[in-house]
Structure formats: C-alpha cells, structure tokens
C-alpha cells in the first residue's frame, strides 16, 4: 500500500512540474496568440497605455491557463490510453525485429497507467466534447494528440531519470568505464529532455486543430471578445449599423442608439472597439472610437 501511495505521489509531482513548465511556455505562447488574433481579425490596436499592457498580460495569462489545463488533461487521457499504446508499440517493435532480424529496444520507456490520471482524463473528455461540437474531426485529432503527449511526457520523465543517473556517475570519485561515458550520456539525455518539453508545449496548438477556438476562448475569458452583446452607439457611427438590429424596446442614454445581437471582437486595448454584425448575407466589421460606444454584455438567464 505504501508503494502505491509513493508511486501516486511521484506521478502527481512529475505532472505538476511538467504542467508548471507548460504554463510558463503557454504564457509566452499566449502573447504570440494575442498578436495572431489581432492579425486574424485585421485589427491592430493604437494608442496603447500602461493599463493596456497589463490587459495584454491578462489575455496572455488566460490563454496560458486554458492551455495548461488542456495539456494536463490530454496527458492524463493519454495515460489512461497507455495500455493500448503499449500494445501497439510492442507490435511495432515485433514487426521491426522480424524485418531487421535484430531485436529493437526503445531508448525510453513508456510510463504505465496511473490511477491519478483519471481526474485529468475526465476533464480532458469534457473539454474535447465541448471543442468538437463544431467540427467532429477534432475528437480524433485530440485523442491522437493525447497519445503523442503521453509518449513525450514519458520521454521527459525517463530522460530526467537517466540524466540524474549520469550526473551521479560523473560525480563519482572512482574512475570507471561508465564514468567516462557519463558526460556524453548526460548531454544526450539533457537535450532529449528539453526538446521533448518544447515539443509538448507546441503539440496541442499545432496538431490539436483547436488553436482558433482556444484563442477565442481566452479572449472571452479576458473579456476582450463578447459574442453576444448590446451596444449603444453615437452619431455618426449609428448610421453605419443596420436598422434591423435596433433595440427599440431598450432605453438608451442621451445621444446614443441601442443595437442588439452585436459581436464585439476586440475591446479594451487601444482607443477603438471592433464590432461585427450581420447585414443581409454578409458579415461587416466596424471600428468605433471608445468614446462613441458603450458595450453591455448580455448574460444568459
């Protein structure tokens, strides 16, 4: 029983460390994604202040938080799928052995299934279910990403273990053949460790097929993007909005006109707010100065 708790504690500690490293990388990626989001909607904020810089960090942090949760969940899901992955790897090794007529040994071992991964896998299934509603192919992409993430997670854990063993040999007082090789082995495992961590950080973004949804979700979480909002616009900008969107039953401040069903794509940064709305068969996008618009977020009842 003691060994089981020790194993669970070691697995949880490793997962927390990897998730912490992923969070730091995710914040850096978050800053990049805010910029990419600006490029995607065709809006570059102007007139930025120190407060806008803090909001930029908030948006990057929101993305990093969501990305770290997704990564931890996918790693946990990959751990739950590891018995199947192990069978596939053993079959692949057997086939390669037959073809090469030489036994194939993996450089790093696959981490076994751990019961502590089940809560993470549960959250991952909820996230996958939500992200895949618009595109069902995302289900398969994220499952494959979970398997690959767990494989790289296993490499990270085993490479770190072998690196520590090599460093112990390097510090040994007695000269042995193993000590002579320890420096080369340590460098190899160190490179493998950092490369695997880097690839883990990028994998959900590059192969998960949900980068756009993650960025949009982070913008919503930071209250930069609002999909359904009520706005109050001043003249002359109110003349650019369709009359079909006028909220006639809403009392507006003096000098403003109310519009409903407006998508706010960018607000908070700079001195303009970007809105989008349907006008017939097209979707129009408009930039309005912040002092000419009031945005009211509509929460579901």
Account of the protein in words:
The chain is 60% helix and 14% strand. The chain has a five-stranded antiparallel sheet, with no helix packed on it. Strand 2 (256-266) and strand 3 (272-279) form a beta hairpin. It folds into two domains: 2-216, no CATH class; 225-297, no CATH class. The longest helix is centred in the first third of the chain and has 40 residues, at 2-41. The chain has seven helices and five strands; from the N terminus they run αααααααβββββ. It has 301 residues and is of the alpha+beta class. It has helices at 2-41, 50-80, 82-100, 118-131, 137-170, 177-207, 211-221, and strands at residues 226-234, 256-266, 272-279, 282-289, 293-297. The mean pLDDT is 78.
What characterizes the major β-sheet? 5 strands, antiparallel
Assign a percent range to the helix content: 55-70%
Number of domains: 2
Q: What letter string, H or E per element, gives the SSE order? A: HHHHHHHEEEEE
Look at the helices and sheets and give the structural class: alpha+beta
Taking pLDDT < 50 over at least 5 consecutive residues as the criterion, the unreliable ranges are none
Rg on CA atoms, Å = 26 Å
Describe the global form: elongated
Distance between the termini: 49 Å
> Mean pLDDT, rounded to whole units?
78
Strand content: 5-15%
Q: What spatial order of strands do you see in the largest sheet?
A: 4-3-2-1-5
The count of DSSP E runs of length 2 or more, i.e. the number of strands, is: 5
Helical segment tally? Answer: 7
């Amino acid at each position: 029983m003691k060994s089981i708790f020790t194993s669970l504690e070691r697995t949880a500690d490793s997962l927390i460390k990897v998730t912490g490293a992923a969070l730091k990388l995710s914040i850096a990626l978050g800053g990049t994604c805010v910029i990419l989001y600006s490029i995607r909607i065709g809006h570059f904020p102007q007139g930025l202040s120190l407060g806008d810089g803090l909001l930029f960090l908030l948006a990057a942090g929101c993305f990093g938080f969501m990305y770290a949760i997704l990564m931890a969940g996918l790693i946990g899901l990959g751990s739950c799928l590891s018995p199947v992955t192990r069978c596939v790897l053993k079959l692949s090794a057997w086939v390669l052995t037959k073809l090469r007529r030489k036994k194939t040994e993996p450089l790093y071992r696959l981490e076994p299934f751990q019961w502590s991964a089940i809560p993470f896998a549960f959250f991952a299934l909820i996230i996958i279910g939500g992200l895949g509603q618009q595109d069902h192919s995302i289900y398969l992409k994220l499952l494959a990403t979970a398997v690959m993430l767990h494989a790289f997670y296993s490499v990270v854990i085993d490479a770190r273990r072998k690196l520590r063993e090599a460093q112990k040999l390097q510090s040994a007082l007695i000269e042995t053949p193993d000590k002579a090789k320890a420096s080369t082995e340590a460098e190899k495992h160190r490179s493998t460790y950092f490369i695997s961590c880097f690839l883990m950080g990028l994998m959900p973004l590059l192969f998960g097929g949900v980068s756009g949804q993650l960025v949009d979700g982070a913008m919503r979480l930071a209250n930069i993007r609002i999909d359904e909002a009520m706005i109050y616009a001043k003249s002359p900008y109110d003349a650019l909005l369709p009359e079909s969107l006028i909220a006639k039953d809403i009392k507006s401040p003096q000098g403003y006109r109310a519009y409903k069903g407006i998508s706010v794509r960018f607000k908070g940064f700079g001195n303009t707010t970007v809105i989008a709305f349907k006008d017939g068969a097209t979707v129009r996008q408009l930039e309005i100065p912040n002092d000419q618009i009031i945005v009211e977020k509509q929460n579901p009842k």
